[in-house]
Amino acid sequence: MGQPPPRSQPQPGPPAIPEAAKLDPKKVLEADQKDVKKIVARLFELASQLKDEVEKTDGTAVLSLGMLKKTEEIEKLARQIRNRAKGE
């Protein structure tokens, strides 16, 4: 018999907007701005960590799996910021 498919970790989506904020566009924009600031802070943290790791890595070495995962998360965060800026 076949094995069950591997469980993937749920990907955190954009945080839910409180019900009261849905009624007031200004509150929606404020909540969105807070979310963008959190995303940018995480993006900066990851980019700084990646920079430090790259500087410590020998020029002939292959990038580690951890470094690859950081680049993927950086891309994901950058897409979230871009999408929010577009209003998506």
Overview of this protein structure:
By secondary structure, the protein is an all-alpha fold. The chain has one domain (20-86). Helix content is 67%, strand content 0%. The longest helix is centred in the middle third of the chain and has 32 residues, at 25-56. The radius of gyration is 18 Å and the shape is elongated. The termini are far apart. The mean pLDDT is 80.
Structural class: mainly alpha
Question: Taking all residues together, what is the mean pLDDT?
Answer: 80
N-to-C order of helices and strands:
HHH
Low-pLDDT residue spans: none
Helix content: 55-70%
In total, the number of strands is 0
What are the key terms here?
mainly alpha; 88 residues
What topology does this entry show?
Blueprint: H1 19-23, H2 25-56, H3 65-86
Brief write-up:
Helices cover 67% and strands 0% of the residues.
